[in-house]
Amino acid sequence: MRIAIIAHDGKKPEMVAFLLKNKNKLKQVELFATGTTGGHVANAGLEVTKLLSGPIGGDAQIASMAATKELDMVIFFRDPLGKHPHEPDVQMLLRICDVHNIPLATNPATAELMLNGSSRIA
Ligand SMILES: O=C(CO)COP(=O)(O)O
Question: Which family does the UniProt entry place this protein in (predicted)?
């Protein structure tokens, strides 16, 4: 099971808290993250493969993985109150997930349901 995790700056603490809360469910999961999100997650003691930071192509890298079926789900805690210079990349990633029917959660409540609903998570 491969999961991509991404969080905008205002949501990074929420992402770390979510992952730590669900640490047991993630034991068999390979995590991939945009660069800065990945740094926070690694600092919290979780193993994660870091890609480029979102604004310089990390969202695009994750979209590419989704398009080539290298990901089983995407958890993307977006900050709906923030402005993002790479908004086109964000929209592209969301669209690619829909094109390829990749489960996508954009808030902790949905992410929790997704993890609990996956038969491939211990
Ligand atoms: O900007 C992001 C998603 O759009 C996240 O990127 P970082 O994890 O590098 O901050």
Answer: Belongs to the methylglyoxal synthase family.
